[in-house]
Write a structure and sequence with these properties.
- The structure is a single chain.
- The protein is an alpha/beta fold.
- It has 3 domains: about 1-130 and about 300-315, 3-Layer(aba) Sandwich (Rossmann fold); about 135-295, Dihydrodipicolinate Reductase, domain 2 (2-Layer Sandwich), CATH 3.30.360; about 340-410, Alpha-Beta Plaits (2-Layer Sandwich).
- It is built from 14 helices and 18 strands.
- The strands form 3 sheets. Strands 7, 8, 9, 10, 11, 12, 14, 15, 16 and 18 form a 10-stranded mixed β-sheet that branches.
- The longest helix is centred in the first third of the chain and has 17 residues, at about 100-115.
- The chain is elongated, with a radius of gyration of 23 Å.
- The relative contact order is 0.14.
- The model has no long low-confidence stretch (mean pLDDT about 95).
- Bound molecules: L-homoserine.
- L-homoserine binds next to helix 7.
Length: about 400
């Protein structure tokens, strides 16, 4: 039976078709019946492609074909994909996706449509590429009260930081390489500025705490302002710089969530996660810390999760797979990040930087000064005590009257 369609024939779409067809015989045994891909929908032409006969340009062919039970939406974005997904679910067709933007923006609404029409909306590939994290969080760890989820959630930025730190490659060359390898988003700003990781931490937090966390309420900063100078200070002090997303309960039914570069101690599990790999630590009150690790982006790792979801839908065609959360209209659900406690690495520049040490002590209390080989006289780097973020900013504002604040990076 040719009951599957794939919408979007880019990196993930072509990987999905390739992996499914390669393992089709085994996959059909797992499903318990014959299944195959009938349509691949894309507006572009792919002359000479081995699956050229399955390519269609009109989405309605898929929507109106009763034989199609499950559709892999791997288009990305929250415009066309949103409209297609709503129509497919309303027609009772299950949809599986790698589209974190869509799940993070409209997940709660799409789950409702799926529920009303007896089909499924699954999104294992939306976080961590090939790493199984959505189902373990939803099922195996469901008996825990989750205390924290924290992780490296973007393959492109982890790849760039690794190349900068370990091969002294400059930012632009590393980004170009990540694009060539098919890791980056169509517009890599989403990777570099942390929006992609933000969508992923929103998905994990929504699943863990049961209410939709909308990305616009989560503070997010990326890696574009990290310099090799910061990398050197961090290395010398025993830290790696990583882009980390974190979500945890903040008391009174609220949560705190943030995505930002962090100085991660070299002896922690996350610090040795390099290249395109992602890692997510989940802390539960029963289980303690659990680490999920694997390739977080790329054609076949992401396809692995998409195909897994396709199989799940086809195995359970008359059953709703409850991986979802409620909508949340409370704008105060995510606490303001300025009210949270943080320890900050700060790098300042001033003509006679040493002379500012008494002022730094007065503003922050006892700080830890860092060194790097050949530190220029006009530069100081230090780590503040653990302070409320707003107080750190007030102190930095004072300091900026006599020095340039070149960098500030939170510690893990
Ligand atoms: N651009 C994303 C990343 C793809 O680099 O992690 C996988 O979601």
């Amino acid at each position: 039976m040719r009951n599957i369609a794939v919408i979007g024939y880019g990196v993930v779409g072509s990987g999905t078709v390739e992996l499914f067809e390669k393992n089709r015989e085994e996959i059909c045994k797992k499903i318990g019946r014959d299944c195959d891909i009938k349509y691949i929908c894309d507006l572009r032409d792919f002359p000479g492609d081995p699956y050229e006969d399955r390519l269609v340009k009109d989405f309605n062919i898929i929507l109106n074909d009763d034989e199609i039970e499950v559709v892999a939406e791997v288009v990305g974005g929250a415009t066309f994909a949103y409209e297609y997904t709503k129509k497919l679910l309303a027609a009772g067709k299950s949809v599986v996706t790698s589209n974190k933007e869509l799940v993070a923006t409209h997940g709660a609404e799409l789950f409702e449509i799926a529920k009303d029409h007896g089909c499924n909306y699954l999104f294992e590939a939306s976080v961590g590429g090939g790493i199984p994290i959505i189902r373990p969080l939803n099922k195996c760890l469901a008996g825990n009260s989750i205390e924290q989820i924290s992780g490296i959630l973007n393959g492109t930025t982890n790849f760039i930081l690794t190349k900068m730190i370990k091969s002294q490659m400059d930012f632009d060359s590393a980004l170009k390489m990540a694009q060539e390898l098919g890791y980056a988003e169509a517009d890599p700003t989403a990777d570099v500025e942390g929006h992609d990781a933000c969508r992923k931490i929103c998905i994990l937090g929504s699943l863990a705490f049961g209410k939709h966390i909308y990305p616009q309420y989560v503070h997010c900063s990326g890696i574009s302002r990290i310099t090799l100078d910061d990398v050197e200070y961090a290395e010398d002090a025993g830290y790696s710089i990583k882009l980390v997303g974190t979500v945890k309960p903040a008391g009174n039914g609220r949560i705190s969530a943030i995505v930002c570069p962090r100085l991660v101690p070299k002896n922690s599990l996350l610090s040795s996660v390099d290249d395109v790999y992602n890692a997510i630590t989940v802390t539960g009150d029963g289980v303690g810390d659990v680490l999920f690790y694997g390739k977080g982006a790329g054609k076949l790792p992401t396809a692995s999760a998409v195909v897994g979801d396709i199989i799940d839908c086809l195995k359970h065609r008359d059953r709703r797979i409850m991986i979802d959360w409620e909508d949340c209209t409370d704008k105060d659900y995510v606490v303001p990040y300025k009210t949270t406690l943080n320890t900050m690495y700060v790098r300042i520049k001033a003509a006679d930087a040493e002379s500012l040490k008494p002022a730094v002590t007065e503003l922050f209390g006892k700080v830890l000064y860092l060194e790097r080989n050949g530190r220029p006289d006009n530069e100081l780097a230090f780590i503040t005590p653990n302070m409320v973020e707003a107080d750190i900013d007030t102190a930095l504002e004072q300091l900026s009257k006599s020095a340039e604040i070149a960098s500030k990076i939170r510690l893990m």
